[in-house]
Amino acid sequence: MLSIKNLHASVEDKDILKGINLEIKAGEVHAIMGPNGAGKSTLSSIIAGNENYEVSEGEIILDGEDISELAPEERAHKGVFLSFQYPVEIPGVSVTNFIKTAINEKRKANGEEEMPANEMLKKIREKSELLEMDRKFLSRSLNEGFSGGEKKRNEIFQMAMLEPKLAILDETDSGLDIDALRIVANGVNKLKNENNAVLVITHYQRLLDYIIPDYVHVLMDGKIVKTGGADLALALEEKGYDWIKSELN
Amino acid sequence: MELKEKLISSFMAFEGQIDVNSDLYDVRTSAIKNFELKGFPSKKEEAWKYTSLNAVLKHDFTVFPKHDSAIEFKDVKKYFLHEIDTYKVIFIDGKYSSFLSQTTHEGLDVCLMSSAFTKPKYKMVMDTYFNQIANKDETLTSLNTAFAAEGAYINVPKSKVVDKPIEIIYFSTGQENALMVQPRNLIVVGENAHVQIIERHQSLNENPVLTNAVTEVFAQKRAIVDYYKIQNDLGSANLIDNTYIAQKQESHVSVHTFSFGGNVTRNNLNFYHQGERIDSTLKGITIIGGKQHVDHYTLVHHAQPNCESHQNYKCIVNDSATGVFNGKIFVEKEAQKTDAFQQNNNILLSEKAVINAKPQLEIFADDVKCSHGCTIGQLDESAMFYMQQRGIPKKEAKALLMYAFSNEVIESIKIPELKQRITQIIANKLGVNLGFDL
């Protein structure tokens, strides 16, 4: 589904990604782990189309199409979703209105009719229940005054509503207590099927107890230096990253 | 002939029509003298440092329109509120339109200044209030006073809660090649009374208009006044709005100014406190582009203890437009425990857009809380990326952000239909249709 080939990227002339290769197939869950400053969040931003980064080399191919020149919204319309580490606050626009707009913009871009109001309401009810969200929450301004945990839950709620092909979860576990972590992970697992894929970006292993990855990649200094199964995450949790560095040397 | 000379000679002609024996005659004469002395303000004056009237004053404005113009309701229907009933005081090229108006004398007076100037039954109110709070030194206010002939006269008696908003609309038809109008409004709100007022100036074609308006508002003890100014005029219209508000103890007065249209707009908004525990609110949203110029010049004069004032002005400037905010808070020695707040946030959308922001605090009391904050920035890029990531195209994302930026002010509009209309104007202004009411 997603194929990243020899991706190089920089911000303000500083090289951050130095040749990333990554293949993700439908139905798979991949995790990218790595120390702070390795380039994990940069990679997720670049896949989603953040224009602050300059891609100097390489390709990002989604379902056979190079998306590296597309605007963020065009990538979103093709099924890329990024759950932000720091979701922004938009006063005056309710969660419901925001998600309605997002869904209908996507449908419009794909040549579909707007979603009928009753279908929309039903879906909102269903997905908010899945994430155990309070109904009142939906009429509040987007992320305004939300706790860290509420913001993350709201991100996964939007993901559930948008049903992306490729979901990238950028440090979704940060700021979550154990109950919220369980609810969020449960939400992600319920949405997972053989036609979509999940890329989990995380510093810690604990989210991976709940969302079990098929592959774990270690990102260090702008490159994927090691790939393994779910057990690699446990080894990293236990031993840190230094042993990989020494292995590389 | 320069406009100043034209006005002064017009005054001589105007004198012929008025009663030279009335007190008002003296008021007018000294007013025109002040204008003759000072003329139109120039950028050399501190208060007009950022706003030039030079280009506007070059037009050959007609001071007394030659024609009487009529307009059909269907042509101007869109400028009125629809869903709720309102009182209406409507003027066309400075003259009262009884056809479009809906005035009243039942329980309150919603009528005309021309009546108030001439009919004996209004004399007491006029003697007590007319030109009492307006600044007699200010040259444009004086100019208005000299010529003041027509406008809205509103007198709300004690304890009266006015059942529906009052719309005051000044239409310009463009019958004259260039027209100068000088509306004069007087609003007296009695003890415990409550009124909502919407004021609008609207040109109906592209011929230049210069409006020099003066409004005096007197809020008695515990009165509540919500005043909304909609400035969404055509690009050929210029407006100088001089509003003076006197508040007695425990009264609450709010003025919201929505500046979206017009060529040069200057809002002189002045609040004077004449009692304790007064609450004053001044809020504004300005969204401009092209070569538009909007200047908010505010003054809150805290003269008594335990009063509050809240100012919040949001301004979004595109293209080569200019926004100005000059906010003065004056706290006299007696005004202990004053709580004065002022906020001014600006967004620049282009390289050539200009913001001049100048908070001025003069505090002579020692136990007060005065705060002011001013920001000038661009649209938040991380927020743009966030929305685009959710599939919302750039233009719509921008609109949502600008809406979010203005939201604090929009939220405090107390007339639901007006709130909806303002958000609709903002959406139109931003060229988006979001599928829901912003």
TrEMBL record, chain A:
The keyword Nucleotide-binding applies. GO terms for molecular function: ATP binding; ATP hydrolysis activity. Keywords: ATP-binding, Nucleotide-binding. Transmembrane segments: none annotated. Residues 2-246 form the ABC transporter domain. InterPro entries: AAA+_ATPase, ABC_transporter-like_ATP-bd, FeS-cluster_ATPase_SufC, P-loop_NTPase. It holds the Pfam family ABC_tran. Belongs to the ABC transporter superfamily. Ycf16 family. This is Fe-S cluster assembly ATP-binding protein.
From TrEMBL, chain B:
It comes from the Bacteria. Residues 4-168 form the SUF system FeS cluster assembly SufBD N-terminal domain. GO terms for biological process: iron-sulfur cluster assembly. Signal peptide: none annotated. Pfam families: SUFBD_core, SufBD_N. SUPFAM superfamilies: Stabilizer of iron transporter SufD. Residues 176-405 form the SUF system FeS cluster assembly SufBD core domain. Belongs to the iron-sulfur cluster assembly SufBD family. This is Iron-regulated ABC transporter permease protein SufD. It comes from Flavobacterium fontis. The lineage of its organism: Bacteria, Pseudomonadati, Bacteroidota, Flavobacteriia, Flavobacteriales.
